[in-house]
């Protein structure tokens, strides 16, 4: 039986707090697995400043955003700070750099005031400003989290485009690349969940994930998508 399940069945405060903490961390660990492995350039997640649970006896459980960020050990920027939570972009520097060098991605970003430079730090700074000061949701963020440029533009201009498929994101036009990436991102979440079931702590999970290898065909296809 998994340790998380054993702890969930225990009613003492210490075990309940530990189970709550593990379940919260589990979500963020599997949602960022594709980024950690360099398969996805980025992932946007909203993190509460404090995940709390007030017990009847007065004991307060609180897992703070700062602790979650420290445990994840990923590069990140805060896109927006709200009273109860922060919107965080986690990113893989290498894959983000490759993604932001693609001409079709740069063309999309240029339409929304981004400079022609492909320096990730510069483009991410513009994205932060767009989130904080534009007054509307910057849908071009899809580029930063691994969505194909055609789908990002298709969603923004959806009044003049035909939706082909709705999954993790809306797919417009030819589906091959979109469905390949969508299935790969989902696969990484499934792999991560299975690894978390047998990992004692985040670092043992990190070690297992680092040893995961895509099959040759999938890896070749991913490289063709990233570098074409």
Written description of the protein model:
- By secondary structure, the protein is α+β, with helices and mostly antiparallel strands.
- The chain has one domain.
- Helix content is 54%, strand content 17%.
- It has twelve helices and seven strands.
- A three-stranded antiparallel beta sheet has the order 1-5-4.
- It starts with a helix and ends with a helix.
- The N terminus is likely disordered.
Strand content: 15-25%
Helix fraction by DSSP (H/I, runs of at least 4) = 40-55%
Q: What value does the Rg take, in angstroms?
A: 19 Å
Shape: globular
The total beta strand count reads 7
The figure for the number of domains is 1
* Contiguous runs where pLDDT drops below 50 for at least 5 residues: 1-9
Lateral arrangement of strands in the main beta sheet: 1-5-4
Order of helices and strands: HHHEEEHEEHHHHHEEHHH
Termini gap: 45 Å
**What would you call the structural class?**
alpha+beta
Average pLDDT confidence is 89
Number of helices: 12
Note the main sheet.
3 strands, antiparallel
Kindly summarize this structure in a few lines:
This protein has 12 helices and 7 strands.
Per-chain topology:
Blueprint: H1 3-8, H2 13-31, H3 33-36, E1 42-48, E2 50-54, E3 60-64, H4 65-72, E4 75-81, E5 85-91, H5 93-99, H6 103-111, H7 120-133, H8 141-144, H9 149-156, E6 163-166, E7 170-172, H10 176-197, H11 202-210, H12 216-227
Antiparallel strand pairs: 1-5, 2-3, 4-5, 6-7
Write out key terms for the chains shown.
12 helices, single chain, alpha+beta, 228 residues, two-stranded antiparallel sheet
């Amino acid at each position: 039986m998994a340790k998380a399940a054993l702890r969930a069945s225990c009613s003492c405060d210490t075990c309940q707090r530990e189970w709550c903490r593990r379940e919260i961390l589990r979500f963020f660990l599997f949602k960022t697995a594709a980024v950690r492995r360099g398969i996805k350039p980025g992932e946007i997640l909203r993190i509460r400043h404090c995940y709390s649970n007030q017990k009847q006896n007065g004991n307060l459980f609180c897992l703070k955003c700062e602790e979650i960020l420290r445990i994840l050990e990923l590069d990140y920027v805060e896109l927006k700070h709200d009273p109860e939570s922060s919107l965080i972009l986690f990113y893989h520097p290498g894959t983000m750099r490759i993604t932001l060098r693609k001409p079709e991605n740069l063309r999309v970003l240029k339409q929304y005031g981004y400079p022609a430079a492909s320096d990730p730090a510069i483009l991410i700074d513009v994205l932060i400003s767009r989130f904080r000061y534009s007054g509307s949701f910057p849908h071009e963020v899809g580029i930063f989290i691994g969505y194909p440029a055609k789908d990002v533009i298709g969603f923004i201009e959806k009044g003049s485009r035909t939706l082909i498929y709705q999954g993790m994101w809306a797919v417009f036009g030819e589906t091959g690349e979109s469905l390949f990436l969508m299935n790969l991102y989902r696969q990484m979440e499934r792999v991560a969940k299975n690894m978390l079931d047998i990992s004692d702590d985040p670092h043992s999970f990190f070690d297992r994930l680092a040893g995961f290898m895509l099959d040759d065909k999938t890896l070749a296809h991913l490289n063709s998508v990233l570098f074409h």
